[in-house]
Structure prediction request, 216 residues.
Amino acid sequence: MNHPFSCVIFDLDGTLLETLQDLTDCTNWALARQGWPTHTVAQVRGFVGNGLYKLIERAVPAGTPPALVDQAFAQFKPYYVAHCMDASRPYDGIIAMLTQLHSRGIATALVTNKAQTATDLLYERFFKDVITVAVGQQPGLALKPARDEVDKALALLKADPENAIYVGDSEVDKQTADNAGLPCALCAWGFRGRPFIDELKPLAILDRPSDVMRLV
Prediction:
């Protein structure tokens, strides 16, 4: 690594928060409303990463007409906002690491493809004291792996991209970092796991949250 970074941009699901149970439960609720088969947590793990609409699109039965996908998503979205904190919690060690970053004056943001409504709820519940800004899906911003949300976060932080690193857990995060022109660190505790992220060749692989401190 060339130098310590003074700004860290974090992915949310699978990086800061273990959200898979709530995503699974809410997806299955929406599928069951339509009379469709439901999925295991392991299956839903493979559907996440490109936003909530894409999650539902991947979860519905093959060949489902777009209008019915839209209908299922319209039911899922408010239900997820109401239940996004039922089981979701920060991974062990995350809050301690973020507190350290905060105390050292490191600029931090979280960027996620979740709707801004759900993003704000989770941010207020878990991170408002230790992360500066939270950017979710909002009008005018393309979803990750586009760079829009990262650029928005950097602008809100007034941070120099030259001094920033992106931390995530998946191929979508590596693509996002590449598109934003940022180096990328990937965490092994997330939704994809160590063997998968090894193949993505990030700048760093993090085995535990405290490893983030090596970057700053």
